Amino acid sequence: MNPTIGWIRNLAASWGVPDVLVPLVPFLLLLIALYAVIGLAAYGAKRKWPRADKTIAFWLFVSPWLIGFAIFTVGPMASSIYVSLTSWDLITPPKFVGLANYSEAFQDPRVAQALKVTLLYGLISVPLQTALAFLVAMLLNAELPGMRFFRTVWYLPSLVSGVAQMVLFLWVFNPRYGLANDVLGKFGITGPGWFNDASWALPTVILMSLWTVGGAMVIYLAGLKDVPSNLYEAAALDGAGPLRLFWHVTLPQMSPIILFNALTGIIGALQIFTQGFIANGGPKDSLLFFVYYLYDNAFQNFRMGYASALAWVLFAVILALTAVTARGSSFAVYYETELSGRRKRRRTR
Amino acid sequence: MTALAQSRPAVVFRTDRPFWRRNISLTIVLYVVLALGSLVFVYPFLWMLATSLRSLAGVGSSGASVLPREFLWDNYSRAITSFPFWRYALNSVLTTLIPIVGTVLSCSLAGFAFARLRVRFSGVVFAVVLATMLLPGEVTMVPQFMLFNNLGMIDTLYPLILPAFFGSPFYIFLFRQFFARMPAELADAAVVDGCGWFKTFWLVYLPLARPAVVAVSILLFMGYWNNFLGPAIYINSDQWKTLPLALAGFQSVNGTDTPLLMATSVLITLPCVVLFFAAQKHITNGITFTGGR
Hints:
The complex is a heterodimer. By secondary structure, chain A is mostly helical.
């Protein structure tokens, strides 16, 4: 802890501030001081330029985000660059080691394993999820009785998320008593060891991730409802069958939504953590997801410098993958963005 | 001439009816596929409920069956009493509800500014907001920990609560889209009537943005309630654990007491399910405008 902050805390405690609130006091004081300065500046600006009230209001309104951006993003990122060049266990002062952390990361076989596992997970699960969610959305888009019920049923599993989901599926895929192997057994198939088997653990997590496609499905469903029906009518008049309607109307119209979901899906998939944590990295590091390895280095082994270097490696990977996805799909989405871009501009301004 | 007049409505009739309405066998196939898929999807859910009501011996022998042969409600009372459930629940509620208020306030304010207060550089700032949406939080995970360590907030709930009051790019974007679609004349009228910009936002725009506020709050609830990485980083001592963190610890200690684990999982999931059924309409509304309509 910073000595000044410790001093303020002691002062607050001696003034009878409840223990629970003591850690908050220095932060609040800092914030109040900051806003006193901002308020004074705004007041001064208002007196000097009385007609600039709009500009002043704008900067005041976005000030929480700007301050948060500075404190929680820019500041930490800058210090992260420095920390990644040091060796630091949080207790003794950081020691400058140059690029040693990075060269260690490139030689660490567990980093390679973590990258492999995480990339495989992202590159397999995201396309599968996208395809399944889109397919289900197409089916549920039929205006038939009972669709509301089906929609609810398909969405329901995505409410079981994070730890609860993993706990449930550790049991579903329990080799001896689990649901999966009992069902397979009824068909005469001896099920694999799932989470207990190093070669099956990752496919099992991917399979599990398909259970919660409901979230993406409802987004596609909303998008499908927005495809203008006159496009279908026009295409059908021109003699297009169901397949061509899908290929030439539905898919192009939906491509921006699909791209957006695929992008956020990839970014989210590369940040997978809980499953690796609960499974303790899986047998033979088969579930050593990158963020879990990073967490392990930072908060279990307290190697802050090495963990910071790993964070930058992850950042580079995510950036590269995002760029590739956006570029690679640009030819498929281009048509549509032109169209919807014009539409959006008209609507929003 | 008459033939043409007759054929016209027929064509229109056909085109605005999707193929599954015209073809009864396709409709049946559709229903069968949907029913089978739904069964596969909902089965683990039912199985979780069934397992949570079984005895340890019953779990071993009943396999894939979801038929409730025994009703051991005792598992639920054990889930609540065998660890300080209410303490963890309180921590979870605190780290869910306060951040929701913080995020809604800060993001709606910024979203309003980006939608209605177009001044010099506002476009640039908005571009920065959008760019940070792509930034993975994990890059700042370690240095943020150091920041909170310096502030003496490790092993408190504050690191899980405070950042919410400083906005989040995705929700700023959502609110901006929502406000941008509301008539600009509202703001002009309010300002002419002598309202300041803040009053215009607080008394005119925010009350009208109720659907957006509700939808965003629901999305945020699901996210914060299930947050695991944050508590796993910042919370060490028992008294500040949230429910997901407690369940994770529970899993590693009582990994073999399956009915108890399932009962606890059901209890943790319950608020999300209740919220979903209570606010189904609002969720659909929210998705319609998050989907970039």
